[in-house]
Amino acid sequence: MTERLLQTMSTADISRRGLFKAAGALGAGVLISGALSACGGSGSDRSAAAEPTGKPQRGGRLRTGHAGGGDVETLDPAKSLTLIDEARARQLYDTLTFYSPDMKVVPWLAKSIEPNADASQFRIVLRQGVTFHNGKPLTADDVLYTWRRILDPATASGGAAALSRVDMKATKKVSATEIQVVLTQPQIDFPALLTGREQSIIPNGFTDFNHPIGTGPFVYKSFTQGRSSLFTRNPHYWQDGPYVNELEMISIPDPVARLNALIAGQVDAIENLSFTDARTHQNDTNLRVLATKSMTCLPFYMQMDVAPFNNPDVRKALRLAVDREATVRTALSGFGDVGNDLFGKGDPFYDASIQQRTYDPEQAKSLLKKAGVDGLRVTLNTNPGTVGNVESCQAFAEQAKAAGITVDVKSWDVGKFNSDIYNQVPLAQTYWNFPPEIMFPFALAPNAPYNETKYRNPQFQTRYADSQRTIDEAKRKEIFGDLQQMLWDDGGYVIWGFIRFTDAVSSRVGGLVEHPYFNLGAFQFRTWWLSK
Amino acid sequence: MTTAAISSQLGIRRFLGRHPIATFMLRRIGLGALLVVAVSFLVFLATNLLPGDAARAMLGGRGTPTQIEAVRHELGLDRPLLARYGTWATGMLHGDLGTSLTGGSSALTGGGAMSGRPVSSIIDEPVRNTLVLGLLTVVILAPLSLLLGVLAGVRPRGLIGQFVSVLTLAGLSVPDFVVATLLILLFAVTWGLLPPVSLLAPGESPLSDPAILVLPVAALLIVSVGFTTRQIRAGVMRAMESDYVEMARLNGIPERKVVLRWALRNAVAPSIQTFAQIIQYLLGGVVLTEFVFGYPGIGAGFVQYVSARDLPTVQAVATLLAVVYIGMNILADLLVTLAIPKLRTGQ
Question: What pLDDT score was predicted for residue B60?
């Protein structure tokens, strides 16, 4: 149970924090929750609840249960850290672009974003008729203010990395609804970088995030950190929906309590069931348990600039020493898909043609011998902040034995991991949920802000620069294929699998469209409706 | 020394000599205050020694070094430890519980001024909620355990005595979160009689929706009643076996009077201390119970503040708890002293 308490908060898009450890609590909690779930009325002869059909019905209050971020929850999108912040940002605000359920970048607040010939400039044309919740129309000034604020070091926003190539001096508004963006370097993927929640557009000059104003489908009514928020339907929203009148988002950190709330009808949807509970309730007729494919992975990173990982044979050996199917089965209880040491499986730019790496401890052993490192011993650092973390490391440690590699798994308190371990030790577990075109600038290209593997391949750098000048999508996909081949050959990541989102909704909920980007249909609550 | 000074000193001494209880109280309060100071400093030290600092915790581990430095400076984390303690302690004495590091996150907006939410506004509701839960439990627990304890103590080998013995042992042995989970399993999930999660809208008092209090209070009662009942039973048993009770019986005083006048009165002292302990336990925030029920109290809240490294809030809550604990102890000691005449003259 403690582990699942910890799962609720993790870094980056989900901030990780440790709670106190109660080993007894874990054991008893698992037993009891198993008993609880078993009494939830599951039976193999019953089919799971069907989704309501027909036209969306209007009205009602949609209540959603989240793990929450406690004290760190915020309505300021530039400073958002936790998963519930992501969820709330998508209700109150909009970004210029977003991802469709098949992971294509689609216009959102921006009607169009057109590159020039070499993608060193973009012309953004904003959608007409969009207003903020206070009635003010959306203009270019709002976008520029939002960007200036994100880039301001005093804001300390995690969204600054996405805007790192924007030349704010040269970027100008051309009219009330048009902006000419000038980049310091070509970056055809610039529109994709604008999909992040930190890039939510706020009104020009706005600072009072206790009473937020956005263009989003829901309007702020009340918010208590760590408890719940209440938003009401925006009747002037520029897209279809919302269909519900009110949206209440509630923080329930304990996953068992969260599930109980759904079963008892206290909430209509919850995120992140434990894998055990997901399995137990798959046939529950009162709920729908989802197992949505996602790009979320828990890779191990190897720092390529220190021994022993500076040797490509050693890196390859480690990658061959993991049994991907077995790890998905044990660490994710089967709620996942095998990975191939590449990010963003399922994304249009993911190169599915690259040969799938398999568990080959014999080859790993011979590679190590060739590298002159017989009997390799490494410390794999992780934290219990995300479900699957520690289990996957332990599974790997077992599997690596056959390759003659001794893996010492060290699990740290999340706070300590984030401040003293992560990105400072040669081998550790990380967390990502981005498609390849975002991972390249974030973690792999030169000057990448999160270059965990210290990847510095000149050939990769040249090819990546080429890709960012390539307007034609098909040609760009080819270059991305080359880049991924390079990463597959000698990169520093062991990406053994991708997690499926295990969420659940009541049988009353209709209109949910599953999405690989985030849980609960990427929190697009505006499409949801409640049947009477 | 002047005559006035001497005589006032003598006057004080005479007063204290004639009022041993006042002396006792003053001494205890004085010591208590020192203890609170010591605890507050230890808490301050401990929270600052927690692995991982607030800046990185807030930035989620992915902040750039410049970002982290900027945040640390904003939060004053680069000032020396003693200076920070001094500022904070002075504030506390003026009733200013401090400003949360994460409340509102506006502590990080440009301008350099710390404008996070005041700690008092963050903890007022959780504290109130835990108080409601705790006091409600005590209000039921006290008469219940007194009744059971006296009945069992008067006739330990009778039916009630045996029953109480077994039941209380069971209640004592099962951990609080297990009791809580079992109650949820039975009453909420299987029989659907009560809500499994104590969902409370922010600002709402738990008393406005009593259904959410039933299971948490029941859980706490089951866990605590064992302890209190057995203590009272032991006190009563001891009293019933004493010489003066034997004497009273031999003198033909009816049993009922014996019980009421002697057994009960002599069970009061251990009862006071027992209840003081239980109240401390309950008001300290019964973390696991609150967590399992999703009850928005200070126990579960405190865990979140620690996780978020919200140092000012952690320090304020820990110090307040210390004040409550020490205050309860002083109160309990006073009541015991008042109840037992022997102790009054002994000091």
Answer: 60
pLDDT band at residue B53 using 50, 70 and 90 as cut-offs: low
Burial class (CB in 10 A: 0-12, 13-18, 19+), A148: middle
What pLDDT digit, counting tens, does each position of A461-485 carry?
999 999 999 999 999 999 999 999 9
Q: Is the ipTM of this complex over 0.85?
A: no
Q: What is the pTM of this model?
A: 0.80
Out of A24, A40, A154, the one facing B175 most closely (by C-beta) is: A24
Angle of helix B159-173 versus helix B119-154 axis, rounded to 10: 150
Quickly list DSSP for B137-198: HHHHHHHHHHHHHHHHHHSTTSHHHHHHHHHHHHHHHS-HHHHHHHHIIIIIIIS--S-SS-
- Interchain contact B17–A (C-beta under 8 A): no
* Beta strands at A218-224 and A228-233: parallel, antiparallel or unpaired: antiparallel
pLDDT at B57: 63
The shortest CB-CB distance from A70 to any of B177, B203, B304 is to B304
A77 → chain B, closest CA residue: B105
Contacts of A423 in chain B (CB under 8 A): 61
B262 touches chain A (CB under 8 A): no
Q: A252-277: per-residue pLDDT in tens? A: 988 888 999 999 899 999 999 989 89
The label of the residue with tokens 């040669």 reads A426
Task: Give the integer Cα–Cα distance in Å for A78 and A80.
Answer: 6
CA dist A394 to A302, A332, B111, Å? 17, 12, 47
Name the residue with higher pLDDT: A21 or A287: A287
User: Which has the higher per-residue pLDDT, A189 or B259?
Assistant: A189
Answer for the pair A171, A185: CB distance below 8 angstroms, yes or no: no
Does residue A416 contact residue A325 with C-beta atoms inside 8 Å? no
Choose among B102, B308, B313, B75: nearest CA to A15. Answer: B308
Rounded Cα–Cα distance for residues A2 and A18 (Å)? 9
Counting Cα atoms < 13 Å in the Cβ hemisphere of A410 gives 15
Residue type, A286: N
Contact criterion met (CB < 8 Å) for A11 and B301: no
Q: Of A119, A23, A88, nearest to A465 (Cα)?
A: A119
A215-240 pLDDT tens trace: 999 999 999 988 999 999 999 999 99
DSSP, res A57: P
Half-sphere exposure of A256 (CA within 13 A, CB side): 33
Amino acid at B172: L
What is the rounded CA–CA span in Å between residue A106 and residue A195?
Answer: 9
What is the tens place of the pLDDT at every residue in A376-432? 999 999 998 888 999 999 999 999 999 999 999 999 988 788 878 898 999 999 999
Residues, chain A: 532
Structure tokens at B144: 């219940």
Query: Which letter does DSSP use for residue B102 in this model?
Result: S
A378 contact partners, CB below 8 Å, separation of at least 6:
A308, A318, A405, A406, A407, A408, A426, A427
Distance CA B269, CA A340 (A): 70
